[in-house]
């Protein structure tokens, strides 16, 4: 074949040979140019990754220095306490403990992200770890290789030793140590060593099992028990776990659970109707030992009152202030009905894609606040008329949307027409500065949004779903303190999303977190949705009933 080609070339004249040469030359030049372009693209991409890693390394270094500084300040204040039991010093120390806790947790979260991007980097050196206490009960789990012969040559396996590692786990009201034993076998045919793979852990090389991690997270975010207090509690069981260690656990767990929080956010914002609310969140202000006021926003998707079995969920978001730009950014992909209070930050959202559904609970509250101080025939009648609307809602709760709509049209609409006429007439009897007149103006100014629920069976009469979500995880605790930083606020919002959604689906939040943390490290990102609360509901409810 080669000789024939050469023979063919020999038969060509000079011009034909030149044309072939130039064509090949052009093809080669084009190929080289394409390769150069691809090389430049890869170099640019590598440089961008190097820059990102460099910035993350600088951030880690900066946080490390800050953590050491805070540790020194805590140590000094602890020393001062022994000399003077000053309440002011104790408060300042508590704030510093929380600030240090947040910094260490953020440090661990960033570090976990860097390790995920560059998994092949050399493992960092770790300080010597104290052995787990001997008094704790041990549960031995043996991981034997699959099969009883060598997978390379088929030779017989001979047991000659074990690889033993220990993991600290938490069960209700007690600790235990799970000892993972992996028998090692040597092949008698080829001397190959065979043993089962090491079991995965929620945190790579971490000491905490999923149950202990879930308990620490739930205690911190669900029960508002700071990590340094948890450390003192565990010490009473002769188990020493420093605040710094637990901060690392929480940071790494936050990184691990991030995709689940993102999936909840996506699910919540995909619905046709949304309940929204916000509440102040005290945040430590670095440098002066005082607190500033951040904001915790809640967005709830719950269609069960309309007889729809779409899983309910709540997504929390944190912001350092209450500017309207935050809900605008949170809801930039949402399309549908937004049920919220009269906060001005929501008003600019309403238009073509998002329409307002106001809350009768807020309108009723205006009259109720006046009534409990100075009851009058007007406030009494207003509360009775609004109460009649709620009585209808009690009857239709959980019914299909079309049935709800027909009942509302037949029974609630006439009551609303009469209520508006009564309010307009009553308003004329009061001074414009009267508080009762103000309550009436509040309702009349939002009348179209307040009565929209009778036009759509999917909508609710009020925004109680959002208020319940906030109360359940954030403001219903007498011992709720504050978060240590803006990063701590974002982390709290993420954990509240998981805890709140688990509760909405009838799950024990701690049991849910334990189950997820036991599986998520090995779960492909494409199947992360399998770990959402409603996809584990049947399994975990059964597990809870058996445990009870």
Describe this structure in words.
Strands 7-6-5-8-9 form a 5-stranded mixed β-sheet. Strands 1, 2, 3 and 4 form a 4-stranded mixed β-sheet that branches. It is α/β, with parallel strands linked by helices and 548 residues long. Among the domains are: 135-199, no CATH class; 257-507, no CATH class. It is globular, with a radius of gyration of 32 Å. The chain is 55% helix and 14% strand. Residues 205-490 form the Transposase IS66 central domain. Pfam families: DDE_Tnp_IS66 (PF03050), DDE_Tnp_IS66_C (PF13817), LZ_Tnp_IS66 (PF13007), zf-IS66 (PF13005). Residues 149-191 form the Transposase IS66 zinc-finger binding domain.
Give average pLDDT, whole number: 86
Number of helices: 17
Summarize the helix and strand pattern as letters.
HHHEEEEHHHEEEHEHEHHHHHHHHH
Largest sheet descriptor: 5 strands, mixed
Distance between the termini: 82 Å
- What is the count of β-strands? 9
Spatial strand order of the main sheet: 7-6-5-8-9
> How helical, in percent, are the residues?
55-70%
Instruction: Report the uncertain regions.
Output: none
Q: From the alpha-carbon coordinates, what is the Rg to the nearest angstrom?
A: 32 Å
Given the helix and strand composition, which structural class is it? alpha/beta
Instruction: Report the principal-axis shape.
Output: globular
| Strand proportion | 5-15%
């Amino acid at each position: 074949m080669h000789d024939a080609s050469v023979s063919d070339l020999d038969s060509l004249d000079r011009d034909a040979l030149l044309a072939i040469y130039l064509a090949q030359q052009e093809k080669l030049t084009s190929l080289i140019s394409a390769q150069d372009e691809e090389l430049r693209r890869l170099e640019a991409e590598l440089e961008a990754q190097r820059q990102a890693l460099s910035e993350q390394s600088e951030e880690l270094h900066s946080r490390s220095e800050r953590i050491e500084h805070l540790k020194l300040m805590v140590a000094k204040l602890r020393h001062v306490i022994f000399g003077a039991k000053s309440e002011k010093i104790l408060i300042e120390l508590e704030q510093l403990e929380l600030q240090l806790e947040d910094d260490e947790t953020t440090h661990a979260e960033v570090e976990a992200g860097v390790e995920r991007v560059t998994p092949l980097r050399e493992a960092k050196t770790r300080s010597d770890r104290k052995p787990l206490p001997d008094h704790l009960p041990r549960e031995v789990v043996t991981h034997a290789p699959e099969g009883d012969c060598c997978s390379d040559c088929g030779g017989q396996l001979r047991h000659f030793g074990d690889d033993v590692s220990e993991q600290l786990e938490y069960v209700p009201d007690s600790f235990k140590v799970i000892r993972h034993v992996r028998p090692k076998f040597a092949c008698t045919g080829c001397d190959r060593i065979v043993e089962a793979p090491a079991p995965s852990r929620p945190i790579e090389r971490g000491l905490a099992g999923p149950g202990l991690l879930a308990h620490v997270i739930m205690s911190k975010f669900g029960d508002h028990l700071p990590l340094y207090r948890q450390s003192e509690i565990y010490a009473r069981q002769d188990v020493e776990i420093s605040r710094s260690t637990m901060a690392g656990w929480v940071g790494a767990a936050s990184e691990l659970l991030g995709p689940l929080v993102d999936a909840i956010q996506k699910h919540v914002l995909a619905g046709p109707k949304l309940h929204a609310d916000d509440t102040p969140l005290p945040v430590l202000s670095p440098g002066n030992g005082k607190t500033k006021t951040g904001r915790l926003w809640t967005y709830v998707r719950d269609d069960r009152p309309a007889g729809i079995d779409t899983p309910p969920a709540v997504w929390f978001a944190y912001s350092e202030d209450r500017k309207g730009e935050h809900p605008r950014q949170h809801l930039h992909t949402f399309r549908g009905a937004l049920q919220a209070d009269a906060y001005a930050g929501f008003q600019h959202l309403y238009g073509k894609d998002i329409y307002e559904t106001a809350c009768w609970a807020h309108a009723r509250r205006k009259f109720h606040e006046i009534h409990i101080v100075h009851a009058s025939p007007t406030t009494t009648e207003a509360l009775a008329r609004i109460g009649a609307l709620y009585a209808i809602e009690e009857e239709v709760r959980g019914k299909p949307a079309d049935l709800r709509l027909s009942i509302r049209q037949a029974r609630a609409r006439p009551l609303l027409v009469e209520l508006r006429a009564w309010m307009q007439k009553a308003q004329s009897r009061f001074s414009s500065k009267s508080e009762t007149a103000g309550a009436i103006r509040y309702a009349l100014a939002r009348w179209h949004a307040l009565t929209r629920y009778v036009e759509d069976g999917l909508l609710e009469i009020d925004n109680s779903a959002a208020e319940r979500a906030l109360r359940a995880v954030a403001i219903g605790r007498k011992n709720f303190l504050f978060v240590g930083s803006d990063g701590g606020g974002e982390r709290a919002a993420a954990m509240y999303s998981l805890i709140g959604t688990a509760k909405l689906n009838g799950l024990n939040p701690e049991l849910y977190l334990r189950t997820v943390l036991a599986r998520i490290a090995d779960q492909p990102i494409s199947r992360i949705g399998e770990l959402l609360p409603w996809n584990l509901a049947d399994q975990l409810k059964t597990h809870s009933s058996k445990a009870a």
